[in-house]
Amino acid sequence: MNKQENVQVMQISEQENVQVVQQMYTAFGEGNLSSLLHLVADDVEWSIAKSEYSSQTGTYIGHEQVVQVLTSVGDLELQQLQPQEIISQGEQVVVIGHALGRLRSTNHAVEYDWVHVFNLRDSKIMRFRAFFSR
Fold first, then answer.
1. What is the DSSP letter of 54?
2. Could you tell me where the beta strands, DSSP code E, fall in the chain?
3. pTM score, two decimals?
């Protein structure tokens, strides 16, 4: 394979990775955990950085732990998760976005920016990291 063919294959792979990530956001938005888990490797590493709004800080391994994190009801009721920019290079996809919600305990509206970093292999999410502005 020459250099141009290699670049074309990489571009196709990056496009496929972006599509997988977009499908993950769609499944999450619809509350479809089955579809979301289909896009995630069995031994996925799912990490959530410290945030003033999330009690699910930490690293979780595998489908079972990811489901526990995604279905646990914390103080934050997420109303909108808005991906605003997607950057892809090789096996990594970075999504920059904004979130709107409210705190159940006080009913106060909250909003914050976030960054999600995905590492993919063979069209599966192998690693997910979430970072928050607050």
1. B
2. 40-48, 58-61, 76-89, 92-103, 109-121, 124-132
3. 0.87
